[in-house]
Amino acid sequence: MVWDNLYASAFERVRGNISNAGRVLLAYNTNIDAVKYLERKDLEKRVESAGKDEVLRYADGLPKRIENIPQLLGSILWSIKRGKAAELFVESCSTRFYMRQWGWDELRMGGQVGIMANLLGGVYGVPVIAHVPQLSGLQASLFKDGPIYVPKVESGKLKLVHPKEFAGDEENCIHHIYEFPRGFTVFDLEAPRENRFIGSADDYNSNVYVRPEFRERFEEIVESVELAIISGLQALTKENYREPLEIVEEHLKVLNEKGIPAHLEFAFTPDETVRKAILDLLGKFWSVGLNEVELASVMEVMGEKGLAEKLLSHDPVDPVAVTEAMLKLAEKTGVKRIHFHTYGYYLALTDYKGEFVRDALLFSALAAAAKAKLGDVSSIDDIVKAMDVPVNEKVKAVEDALSKEYGMKDGIAEVNSYQLAFVPTKIVAKPKSTVGIGDTISSSAFVGEFALRRGKTF
Ligand code: AMP
Ligand code: GLC
Question: How do the domains of the chain map onto residue ranges?
Answer without folding.
Answer: 2-30+111-137+204-455, 33-110+174-200
